[in-house]
Structure formats: structure tokens, C-alpha cells
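Quick question, first post here. What does this chain look like in 3D?
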Amino acid sequence: QVQLVESGGGLVQAGGSLRLSCAASGSIFSINTMGWYRQAPGNKRELVASITSGGSTNYADSVKGRFTISRDNAKNTVYLQMNSLLPEDTAVYYCNAQIWPIARMRSYDYWGQGSQVTVSS
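> Answer (accepted):
Ran it through. C-alpha cells below.
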């Protein structure tokens, strides 16, 4: 079965850095767009960054210049490098990917388990 497993969350001081990883596993035919969303307490889930299979990236205005999304297709893994972190970056971060499983007719939307990122002031 296809799964997304996240790692790299934690507690960091303002101005510091963290790198989130999300690895897809299972019987995968192809992976299309991958991305990161976040949800802070009292807020709705928002897109942080996304990257297509061809490497085109998109970022929320609030993280442009500070965060970098990348992917390693050989490892079926997407990363989010977060620099110059701010307290307002505190949220649960969710990995997302559109994945076409082997022996299926189309791609499906998959989510990681969520990673807590806390930025202290």
C-alpha cells in the first residue's frame, strides 16, 4: 500500500532552520506533484510549497525567500528546507502527493501523518 512518512519536525529557535522530509513507499507507478501544507491552531490548512514532477516550484508569499522545496525522485522523497524561521511558522506540517499506484487506473491524493514544527521566540 502507498504511504507517505514524514520526519524532521521539532522545536527550533526563531531564526533557526529545520528540514522536513517526506518519503513515499509502496507499489508506485509514478508521483506527480508533491507539496507541503500547514495548519496552525485556529487556522485552516494552507499550501506552503509545491513542486511538480518536472521541478517547477510554487511558494506561499509568507515563506518566499526563506523556504525551499526540493525532491529526490530516485528516493521518492520531497524535502522542505526552512530557514529564518519565525514564531508564526509554528504549525503542523503535512506532506501531500499525487501518486499513481501500480495496478490502478488513476492517481490518488495522499497525505503524510503530520509533523509538529514549533518556533520559539
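The chain has a mean pLDDT of 97.
The radius of gyration is 14 Å.
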